Amino acid sequence: MKLCRVVGAVWGGKEAGSLGGRKLLAVRPVAVARGTSPADIEADGERPELQGGIIVALDQLGAGIGEYVLVAHGSRVRDLTLGPGVPTKDVVVAIVDSAHLELDLLCDGGGAA
Known about the structure:
Layout: E1 2-10, E2 23-29, E3 39-42, E4 55-59, E5 68-73, H1 75-81, E6 90-96, E7 98-101
Antiparallel strand pairs: 1-2, 1-5, 2-4, 3-7, 5-6
């Protein structure tokens, strides 16, 4: 799973029928800054940096632009949450109110990998 921030919505004039009009969101993973531990991410708080490219994920939970979400990837996640006939492997599985990260555990040499 990836902790991401919703940066936009995606619409199309035509879509695969198996999408069934479901909502698509553009999300970007949250960057973890080294050298600052711990880090707190809150829905109403200061915005952390984003990293990587945009991921388009299917959302059935009603997340909005600016919110943090957990995005899971894989056919098993898709099958369990949306059904095997849906043509995506990126699914919003939670809307995040807050997260606490112990960054020392994520950095090289700072604990278990």
